[in-house]
TrEMBL record:
Keywords: Transferase. This is Sulfotransferase family protein. Pfam families: Sulfotransfer_3 (PF13469). InterPro entries: P-loop_NTPase. It comes from the Bacteria. It comes from Thalassovita mangrovi. GO terms for molecular function: transferase activity. The lineage of its organism: Bacteria, Pseudomonadati, Pseudomonadota, Alphaproteobacteria, Rhodobacterales.
Length: 310
């Protein structure tokens, strides 16, 4: 077969193929559709950066005094690149001298300085000063690769002579202006009340288990919807529960955190000493407290809420 013959047959086959393809072409399909240009490498990198959350969440921890919050906070402080600021409440009146007393020297405390000014400063001003400070610290530390964690001093809000309903909580102050990842930790109310009594931190009246339980319930109601971790679970399986906390707070987990516990210093550290974490026996319960605890409806409701025994 000559080359010309082969070329003619090939041309005929191509024409036949094109005719068959023409059958499948829709009448409204343009004869020439320009191909969409692929994004450049720089554009692809920019798209990836834009898809990443620009402001990482601020982490917050919330608990009552004597509920194991210091131990848990110290473990979180020992995690890689965590910066834990302990016992924060911008509207706390604890440590603020009462009217007629000499102002307290605190040159680094701007909010206290405003509280002690000759003219009264509105609560909203204190809130805005606090928000601005936290936002600046959070953004700056995030840019340096650190994770800011605020440990709430809920005792100031719910366990003093201040009406808890008269002011916002730390979580309520911060949530409107920045994304938060928050966790509430709890402990059996009887154990917490016994420890609170032993430390002399009873700043409310009447000083009864029922009143304490009522305030604890109010605290929980104000933090409704936040994940809750029980202290008893933590001391039973510390590594497992710390990893759970890291997942909830979006923090990197490291079991080496427990090795650094002895060198972590933190306010509110009134409980256990040493680096070993384990469950401990309950303090002795006074007979009068043992007799009346079953009669307290608030205490019963609090125990039932988390499956604690009475």
């Amino acid at each position: 077969m000559s080359i010309n013959t082969m070329a003619q047959e090939l041309a005929a086959e191509l024409e036949d193929t094109l005719r068959q393809l023409e059958v499948y072409r829709r009448e409204d399909t343009p004869s020439s559709v320009p191909a969409e240009a692929l994004p450049s490498l720089l554009q692809q990198c920019q798209q990836i950066c834009d898809s990443i959350e620009q402001t990482p969440p601020l982490r917050t921890l919330h608990h009552f005094a004597c509920t194991g919050g210091t131990l848990i906070s110290k473990c979180i402080s020992a995690l890689p690149n965590s910066v834990v600021v302990s016992e924060i409440d911008p509207l706390s009146t604890m440590g603020v001298n009462k009217s007629g007393w000499a102002p307290r020297f605190a040159p680094t405390d701007l909010i206290l300085g405003l509280r002690q000014a000759a003219r009264d400063v509105d609560q909203d001003v204190l809130v805005e000063v606090f928000r601005s400070s936290i936002l600046t610290a959070h953004e700056t530390l995030s840019g340096q690769g650190y994770s800011l964690v605020l440990r709430d001093h809920a005792h100031s809000h719910f366990c003093t002579d201040v009406d808890p309903a008269s002011r916002p909580s730390l979580h309520e102050i911060l949530s409107p202006c920045m994304p938060l990842r928050s966790v509430v930790t709890v402990r059996h109310p009887l154990d917490a009340f016994l420890s609170l009594t032993a430390n002399g931190w009873l700043h409310f009246e009447p000083v009864t288990l029922d009143e304490y339980s009522s305030r604890y319930l109010a605290f929980l109601d104000r933090h409704e919807g936040l994940p809750v971790v029980q202290y008893e679970d933590f001391v039973t399986a510390p590594e497992e529960v710390l990893e759970q906390l890291c997942n909830l707070l979006d923090l990197p987990f490291s079991p080496l955190a427990f090795d650094f516990l002895p060198v972590i210093k933190m306010t509110g550290d009134s409980g256990r000493s040493g680096g070993r974490i384990s469950a401990r026996r309950r303090r002795d319960v006074p007979q009068e407290l043992s007799d009346i605890r079953h009669e307290s409806q608030n205490y019963r409701a609090l125990c039932e809420r988390f499956g604690y025994d009475l």
